[in-house]
Amino acid sequence: MQTQQSQPTKRRNRAESFNARVQVLLAVDECGPIIAEVLRQNGVVLPDANWSKVFPAWLIAVDGGEDGNGDEVIGCIQVMPAKPFGWCAFLYTKPTVSFKLRAIALRKLIVAGMSTCHAAGCAYVAGMIDVRNGSFIKVMADLHFVTVGDSTMMLKGLR
Asked: CA 147, CA 145: separation in Å to the nearest integer?
């Protein structure tokens, strides 16, 4: 009779532990006020916006905590697939979260946004970055994004 020996479990290093804590999920409508709060903490205030219907246009990054039992929303991105290109906007994380968790959440939200657009048949994904955020522009350029123009994002309430 053959016996199978169990393999020793590999311990996660600190980076792997942080990475495993952050999950990206499709936001349900109940997440709307939480998304609005993440935006508000980043200076985006939309006083007349109705946040009761965010499904299926938003993804959220959730911190599961060190023990894996947490569920704090720490970031968000709006994803709007269209053809020939999809649009990702409002990529933000809570400023109170550690730098490492913010970086992981941003990376995972970017990848999830691109994957969503790709799955919808988009040939490209587009988004806007504030020109004052040079370090993030460099990160995106390192991911092979190209600058197609400088612009100012305009917003007008419809009520």
From this structure: 7
